[in-house]
Structure formats: structure tokens, C-alpha cells
Design brief:
By secondary structure, the protein is an alpha/beta fold. It has nine helices and seven strands; from the N terminus they run αβααβαβαβααββααβ. The chain has a seven-stranded mixed sheet with strand order 3-2-1-4-5-7-6, with helices on both faces. This is LmbE family N-acetylglucosaminyl deacetylase.
Amino acid sequence: MADLDVQLAPRFADGDDFGLTTVVAFAAHPDDLDFGAAGTVALLTAAGIRVEYCIVTNGDAGGFDESHRPDIEQMRQGEQRAAAARVGVADVHFLGERDGYVAPTLELQQKIVALLRKVRPQLVLAHHPERNWSNIQSQHPDHLSVGEAVVRAIYPALENPFAFPELQAAGLEAYRLREMWLFGGPVERENHFVDVSSVLDLKREALLAHLSQHPDPQRMMQYVEEKLAAVAQRGKQPEGALCESFHAVTVNGNQTIAGF
């Protein structure tokens, strides 16, 4: 737990008892979480914290090999389950939206609220809903839509018993989320850096599980490690650190006055 405590300390130095036991991580496509947060997830699960994944699409528009097209959805779901297992995640939910067609609809928000009320995490990881203009290649419209849908679902619907009343009637009771960490957003939004150098091998294994996506795995991993080093430098982390970065947002803290 010590390694994780070091990572959490900058966020909760005010003495707030986070009580972190459960996390849900959302992404648009299989492999998004492995690029954006798999190292952090590996640290969480190693500390005994339960993490579940929710992938909004089946990744049907991904890949590079024409021969994979008939089986691409099944391939990518299998790859994501294998990647999740590498970092200690057993539960992977797929919402089945079409790859490239995601919008932050009320229907999608309701699915997100239903899952969160069922699992009841204290922390949610998700794409940032704001575009990072300095890295447009990572700003797939589905990423932005998933980030927006998750943020809208978290407040106010998740904690409002009168939002999606059919969920409340089905026993999925409203509750207040403590924290969300958003990845892939504008650099100026970064306020939390997690050194994943101790679990780099696990992050690498998770990424390499996505065989259908990487025509040049060696070049891909070189890019990822260079990016992690650059993020650490940007965050003024110790020499040798390799970091994933987040825009960490307190949704309900000790000083929060709730309201709909």
C-alpha cells in the first residue's frame, strides 16, 4: 500500500479520508485505458483496490489487417480482457456502442449511471471531455464524447434519486462519487501525476495484448515510453520517473455542498 499512498498524498494532503476501495475506469475503445491509465490501474490493484473497466464501444472500426474484419469485435473484446488481466482487472463491461458513432446521449448517460450505482466506486477514471489541440491524433471524437457522457452522468444524475427514476425503482440507488481522474486532456489541466515506472512491464504487456492494433509494436512502445518520460518532466517529477497524468477533480469532498 505504501507505493499507492505516495501517489495519493498530493491529492489528499488535507487529511480527507478517501476510503478508496473501488474504481471504475471508462474508455471509448479497447486499448484506450492501456495507453492512458494502465500503469495507474496496476498500482491500484496491487494495493488491493478493486478496478472494473467499462468500454463504451466494441472497437469495430479499429485494426489494420483486412483479414480481421469479420471477427474484429470479438478479437478486440478478447484483447481487452487479456490486457485488463495483466494489470489485475477481472471485470470488463462493454456497452456496445458503434465505434466512431458515440455521442453523449441521455441513453448512454443512463447506462453509465446504472453501472456506477451498481458498482458504487469512490473513484472514476475516464477520458477528458476537452480537446487537447497539441495532440490531435489522440483526440478521437469518441474519446471526447465518452468523457462528456461520463462527466454528465456523474453530476447530477448519479447522485440525484429523481434522475432516471426507473433506476432508483430497480434498486440502483443514487450516491455521491468522491473523485474523478480524467486522462488525455489539455496539458494545462494536468494536476496529478502518477509514477508508473515500477509497473512499466505490466503496462507494456497490457498494450501488447492488443495485437490487432499494432503493426509495429516496438515503435509503439518506444513512443509510449517517450511520452511517459515527457509527462514526468512536465510534471516536475524526480529524474527517471515515467508518469501518467490526470486532471483530478473532487466531485464530493468534505467541503462540498450538494445540490441538483
